[in-house]
């Protein structure tokens, strides 16, 4: 079974994250590559984000062989509760304490902007699959971000 999130983008996003992280795999043999799923797991968006994205990520890791080189891939997850301060605190802890190397999902523009700044500061990887503000691909764009889906500019001009 192939793993996809509700919008069908999780498997390719995880593979991209793994490949971006994979360059350092040889230097850290055996140490897990931690990829974090951050989204709304308890609020109004939980039905189409939430724990289903975690299950899809775990299936994607399984499809990918569960490791990169000699490093196992581990999925961690958290509920940002649709609050930028909670998302930012979670991202900082994941990077500084828990050894997370990439954060994916974050379908909330305000939280995505906060996580983007922390990701840039920590020189990690952030794959955005739901925050649609044009600032993520414009004024606040960083080399650490991959804006995986459309932004508001593309959405408006596409219509």
Task: Give a description of the structure.
The chain has one domain (10-20, 29-158): Rossmann fold, CATH 3.40.50. Strand 4 (100-105), helix 4 (109-122) and strand 5 (125-128) form a beta-alpha-beta unit. By secondary structure, the protein is an alpha/beta fold. Helix 1 (10-22) packs across helix 2 (50-63) and helix 3 packs parallel to helix 4 (109-122). The protein has five helices and six strands, in the order H-E-H-E-E-H-E-H-E-E-H. A six-stranded mixed beta sheet has the order 2-3-1-4-5-6, with helices on both faces.
Structure, briefly:
The chain has 159 residues and is of the alpha/beta class. 38% of the residues lie in helices and 19% in strands.
Structural key phrases:
159 residues, alpha/beta, Rossmann fold, 19% strand, globular, disordered N terminus
The CATH topology comes to Rossmann fold
Q: Report the structural category.
A: alpha/beta
The named CATH superfamily? Response regulator
- Based on the structure given, which CATH architecture is correct? 3-Layer(aba) Sandwich
């Amino acid at each position: 079974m192939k793993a996809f999130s509700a919008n069908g983008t999780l498997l390719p996003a995880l593979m991209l994250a793994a490949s971006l992280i994979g360059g350092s795999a040889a230097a850290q043999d055996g140490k897990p590559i931690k990829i974090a799923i951050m989204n709304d797991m308890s609020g109004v968006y939980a039905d189409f984000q939430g724990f289903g994205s975690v299950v899809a990520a775990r299936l994607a890791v399984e499809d990918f062989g569960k490791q990169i080189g000699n490093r196992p891939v581990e999925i961690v997850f958290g509920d940002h509760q649709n609050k930028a301060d909670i998302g930012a605190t979670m991202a900082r802890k994941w990077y500084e304490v828990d050894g997370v190397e990439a954060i994916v999902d974050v379908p909330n523009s305000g939280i995505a902007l906060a996580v983007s700044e922390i990701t840039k500061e920590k020189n990690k990887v952030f794959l955005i699959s739901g925050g649609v503000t044009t600032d993520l691909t414009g004024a606040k764009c960083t080399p650490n971000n991959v804006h995986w889906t459309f932004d508001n500019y593309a959405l408006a001009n596409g219509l």
